[in-house]
Specification:
- The chain has three domains: 12-50; 62-128, no CATH class; 146-210, no CATH class.
- Strand 1 (147-150) and strand 2 form a beta hairpin.
- It contains eleven helices and five strands, in the order H-H-H-H-H-H-H-H-E-E-E-H-E-E-H-H.
- The protein has a three-stranded antiparallel beta sheet. A two-stranded antiparallel ribbon has the order 4-5.
- It starts with 11 loop residues before the first helix and ends with a helix.
- By secondary structure, it is mainly α.
Length: 244
């Protein structure tokens, strides 16, 4: 016959320690501070018995699942989250991610036609504009003249939008860029957009500069020799085809 495990006895000082620190420390830190010959799981069980929850889960109701199943094909996830925030109150609120996660779990997938119809409905209601307005409120907008770095290049914000800083500086200090020409960095440093470090190259020159400059001098000479040899072979083959 199996016997029940020994019941863990807790002192008043241990209980007070848990009450005082459960929401300040992680479970691991609290367990180390407790320094009691029990498992961490036993400590967590005691916390639950005392009603000291760090995370209180809120589960979907049948009504919420039913609403999602009936409307996911015609209403977007963001809009469903807004409806839920008004209709089904939750401590932390509803977000688009909550809806997406539940849809994936229930395998509720929209067809391209349904997605297109939802987007068109959003455009008709002006919800895309509202989304941008909310983004500007939460994230703010950069002022004209702000320089940002994106994917290794510098950009500056102008009245017409963002453009490459190298292009902006060349036009500002050296003049307009002729058609077919590109602004290039003399020292090959994309972040150095000082006017004296900028030059104009044709597209062919720019491509040649970027493709060959990565290799050592002797390697470039070998590649150039191979290229010349290939041209000669192609020429001879063409002559042979014409004579035969």
């Amino acid at each position: 016959m199996r016997t029940a495990p020994n019941k863990i006895e807790w002192t008043v000082s241990e209980i007070n320690l848990l009450k005082k620190n459960w929401n300040k420390l992680t479970n691991k830190e609290l367990f180390q501070l407790l320094n009691k010959p029990i498992s961490e799981h036993s400590m967590r069980t005691k916390l639950y018995e005392m009603g000291l929850y760090k995370l209180e889960l809120e589960f979907w109701t049948e009504e919420q699942v039913k609403f999602l199943k009936e409307n996911y094909k015609k209403i977007g996830d963001t809009e469903i989250a807004e409806i839920f925030n008004k209709k089904y109150l939750k401590k932390k609120g509803w977000t688009k991610k909550h809806i997406e996660k539940k849809r994936r779990y229930l395998k509720l997938k929209r067809t391209p036609e349904e997605l297109s119809a939802i987007r068109e409905d959003w455009r008709r209601k002006g919800l895309y504009k509202e989304s941008n307005r909310k983004m500007w409120i939460t994230r703010g907008t950069n002022e004209i003249g702000t320089v940002v770095i994106w994917k290794g290049d510098k950009f500056i914000k102008t009245e017409k939008g963002y453009i490459h800083l190298r292009v902006f500086n060349y036009r500002m200090y050296k003049g307009e860029i002729p058609k077919g020409m590109m602004v290039n960095h003399i020292d090959r440093n994309k972040l150095n957009c000082n006017p004296e470090n900028l030059q104009l190259l044709t597209r062919a020159e720019n491509a040649r500069r970027n493709s060959w400059s990565r290799y050592p001098e002797d390697y470039r000479k070998a590649l150039w020799s191979i290229k010349k040899l290939n041209r000669l072979i192609n020429k001879k083959q063409k002559q042979w085809q014409e004579t035969n």
